[in-house]
Design goal:
The chain is of the alpha/beta class and about 120 residues long. It is built from four helices and three strands, in the order ααβαββα. A three-stranded parallel beta sheet has the order 1-2-3, sandwiched between helices.
Length: about 120
């Protein structure tokens, strides 16, 4: 999500108010560590501009480590998608209202299979 703690916390709280379960990570390496521990996760939301590793690089790492895990990239720029971004990863442009963001994230969650 956001790399700046105050913005990340506000966004996480707003998404929680929309009924989503949110786990925060301060940066891409922290997110990878959380997911490597087996954290259950339906979708990952990341910002493109982060120190140390871009959101596109995080999405590429997740495509290798957790194939099929939906990832959405937030960006404040309408530039072409970063070259490392895996195909099919949506780029959501800021500003994006919380309700619209929550709806988009819900759309990305795969439907449970039979018996799931």
């Amino acid at each position: 999500m956001e790399d700046e703690a105050p913005l990340r916390q506000v966004m996480a709280a707003a998404l929680r108010e929309e009924g989503l379960v949110v786990t925060e990570a301060a940066d891409a390496p922290a997110a990878l560590r959380l997911l490597d521990t087996g954290l259950g996760c339906d979708v990952v939301l990341t910002d493109q501009a982060m120190p140390g590793m871009t959101g596109g690089a995080l999405a590429a790492a997740l495509a290798r480590r957790r194939p099929g895990l939906p990832v959405a990239l937030l960006s404040g720029h309408a530039d072409p998608p970063p070259p490392e971004l895996p195909p099919g990863v949506p780029v959501l442009l800021k500003p994006l209202g919380t309700a619209a963001l929550a709806a988009r994230l819900r759309q990305m969650v795969p439907e449970p299979g039979p018996g799931g």
